[in-house]
């Protein structure tokens, strides 16, 4: 029998690697099993997020944004440059270097914290045993007092658009296009569709997004969603709502996509097609038959609020369990579970998890929308403020968007914050902290903000809850 551990974590994505580091920091003897190998055949940590998700997509979003700034906006502020050219090979090289730095960082953190890295595929064979099959097929069984499953998720595939090697791809393939497709089809106007659609649109593709639902970004406050849709349309993203994809055919090196909308059957031809219709939990081969860990009706590992499965001392976190599929949610669950295993009291506030879509401008939100509150019968008051009235946003040549705060009508407690603006992903931290501290809109309104800063738009939105925004005409009189 091989080594015995206090904790074995299966999966080294942002859920698993954070759980392993935290457990080791708590003095627990910890191992983390990872099966992901890069193109050079080397085991890499960081999971979807670092290898094919958050980090590479943000590298391409940033470089393509800089390209658009140089091409379309430098001249507006008096910077004259020759027509810039996008060097896709160099952009991919930059993206890959960012991935390598990040994944290398996790391996270094494992060493520094004393986490044992086990390379290969992990399988829970009992409530205290994990079998690890290395890349040569050799299996070793390790024992542990506690097991944390952090196996993540994979893209959903749909029958009308079976994937091909290079024409019909998931987000992973869309991070690797070596040239700009002339006509790019995107199925799903969700987070991935809007982010990767934006990347390739900025670099010159004609992008059509086919979205089955009639509504755009239903999880975002409708005022912010409406503004976002308008801004993305202005950038040339053709978002077709109520368009359900029913079939596809690969002809030579083109993809013909069939879909139905309000006008009946339609057809469009693309040079590349990205299928991004959601992700599903990855649990295949992770738990041996007979261990008894239950899955829910959608295939997620069933857990309670503290990520305990129905089997004692077996926990599951991140994308393979209920809740939003976000890296920071996975990481916070990892911290909570490690603390619980170490004997501490720990919990997570699932009502205050921020979301960001890294388009330009960014869309960010936390908590309820005004519509959610109405559905729940909660009476609210709201305050909104446009970035076109914010001095710093004007100086940044980024006046698009607005911030909106939703507060309880009776208690004034902040229930939600929704923003579309440059750097909304940074600004939303104010809403997260305010909500974690149980702040009222008045608390933010009475806070002194640095000037000039785009954060002042949040201050003004908080003032606007009582109709007292300073830089807006529609004030209430006391
Ligand atoms: P994962 O990151 O999927 O990691 C699971 C790990 O477990 C993998 O490394 C896998 O190889 C390993 N594993 C699975 N089974 C086994 C086994 N049996 N043995 C050993 N190892 C195993 N989220 C954000 O918050 N912000 C973003 O900007 C963002 N952008 C994204 C962009 C894209 C294109 C995609 C696809 C996703 C993005 N996400 C983003 C979502 C984010 O990547 C996930 O929510 C996050 O990675 C989930 O973390 P996790 O640890 O649960 O799973
Ligand atoms: P998503 O759930 O965000 O969006 C999928 C969209 O596809 C939905 O709007 C859905 O209505 C649509 N759809 C489903 N079937 C369809 C069909 N047959 N035809 C047309 N449209 C269809 O999923 P995603 O964009 O694939 O992202 C997956 C996950 O990754 C998300 O849960 C997200 O949280 C995470 N992610 C997060 C970020 C971020 O935080 N910035 C970035 C990328 C991905």
TrEMBL record:
Where NAD(+) binds, per the record, is at 188-195, 211, 278
| One Gene Ontology biological process | 2-oxoglutarate metabolic process
- Catalysed reaction per UniProt? N(6)-[(R)-dihydrolipoyl]-L-lysyl-[protein] + NAD(+) = N(6)-[(R)-lipoyl]-L-lysyl-[protein] + NADH + H(+)
Keyword annotations for this protein, in alphabetical order, are:
Cytoplasm, Disulfide bond, FAD, Flavoprotein, NAD, Nucleotide-binding, Oxidoreductase, Redox-active center
The record's listing under InterPro entries reads: Class-I_Pyr_Nuc-Dis_Oxidored, FAD/NAD-bd_sf, FAD/NAD-binding_dom, FAD/NAD-linked_Rdtase_dimer_sf, Lipoamide_DH, Pyr_nuc-diS_OxRdtase, Pyr_nucl-diS_OxRdtase_dimer, Pyr_OxRdtase_I_AS
Is-annotated flag, keyword Transcription? no
Needed cofactors? FAD
Compartments where located: Cytoplasm
Q: What is its EC number?
A: 1.8.1.4
Note on how the cofactor is bound: Binds 1 FAD per subunit.
Residues annotated to bind FAD: 58, 122, 319, 325-328
Keyword Transport appears in the UniProt entry: no
Q: Which Pfam families is this protein grouped with?
A: Pyr_redox_2, Pyr_redox_dim
Disulfide linkages recorded for this protein, renumbered to the chain, are 49-54
Class of enzymatic activity (EC top level): oxidoreductase
Active-site residues, Swiss-Prot/TrEMBL: 451
Q: Which residues form the FAD/NAD(P)-binding domain?
A: 5-334
The UniProt record's further free-text remark is: The active site is a redox-active disulfide bond.
> What's the protein called, per UniProt?
Dihydrolipoyl dehydrogenase
User: Which species is this record about?
Assistant: Vreelandella populi
């Amino acid at each position: 029998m091989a080594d015995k551990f206090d904790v074995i974590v299966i999966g080294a994505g942002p859920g698993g690697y954070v759980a392993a580091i935290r457990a080791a920091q708590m003095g627990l003897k910890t191992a983390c099993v990872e099966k992901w190998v890069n193109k050079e055949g080397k085991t890499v940590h960081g999971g979807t997020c670092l290898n094919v998700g958050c980090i590479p997509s943000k590298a391409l979003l940033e470089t393509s944004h800089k390209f658009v700034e140089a091409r379309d906006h430098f001249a507006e502020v008096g910077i004259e440059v020759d027509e810039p050219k996008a060097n896709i090979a160099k952009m991919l090289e930059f993206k890959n270097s960012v991935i390598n730095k990040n994944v290398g960082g996790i391996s270094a953190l494992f060493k520094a914290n004393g986490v044992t890295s086990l390379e290969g595929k992990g399988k829970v064979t009992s409530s205290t045993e994990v079998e690890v099959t290395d890349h040569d097929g050799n299996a070793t069984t390790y024992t542990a007092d506690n097991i944390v499953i952090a196996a993540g998720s994979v893209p959903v595939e749909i029958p009308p658009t079976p994937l091909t090697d290079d024409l019909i791809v998931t987000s992973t393939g869309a991070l690797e296009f070596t040239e700009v497709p002339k006509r790019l089809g995107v199925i799903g106007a969700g987070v991935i569709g809007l982010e990767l659609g934006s990347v390739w649109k900025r670099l010159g593709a004609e992008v059509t997004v086919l979205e089955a639902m009639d509504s755009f970004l239903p999880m975002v406050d409708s005022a912010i969603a409406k503004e976002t849709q308008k801004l993305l349309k202005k950038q040339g993203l053709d978002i077709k709502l109520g368009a359900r994809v029913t079939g596809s055919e690969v002809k030579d090196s083109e993809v013909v996509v069939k879909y139905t909308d309000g006008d009946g059957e339609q057809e469009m031809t693309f040079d590349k097609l990205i299928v991004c219709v959601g992700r599903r939990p990855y649990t295949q081969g992770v738990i041996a038959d007979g261990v008894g860990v239950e899955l829910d009706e959608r295939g997620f590992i069933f857990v309670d609020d503290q990520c305990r499965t129905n089997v004692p001392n077996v926990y599951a976190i991140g994308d393979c369990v209920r809740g939003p599929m976000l890296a920071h949610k996975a990481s916070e669950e990892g911290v909570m579970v490690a603390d619980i295993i170490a004997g501490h009291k720990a919990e997570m506030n699932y009502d205050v998890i921020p979301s960001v879509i890294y388009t330009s401008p960014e869309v960010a939100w936390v908590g309820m929308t005004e519509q959610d509150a109405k559905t729940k019968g909660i009476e609210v008051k709201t305050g909104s403020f446009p970035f076109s009235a914010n001095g710093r946003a004007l100086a940044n040549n980024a006046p698009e968007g607005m911030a909106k705060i939703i507060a309880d009508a009776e208690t004034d407690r902040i229930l939600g914050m929704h923003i579309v603006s440059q750097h909304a992903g940074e600004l939303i931290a104010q809403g997260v902290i305010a909500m974690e501290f149980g702040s009222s809109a008045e608390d933010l309104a009475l806070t002194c903000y640095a000037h000039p800063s785009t954060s002042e738009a949040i201050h003004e939105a908080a003032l606007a809850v009582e109709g007292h925004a300073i830089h807006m005409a529609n004030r209430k009189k006391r």
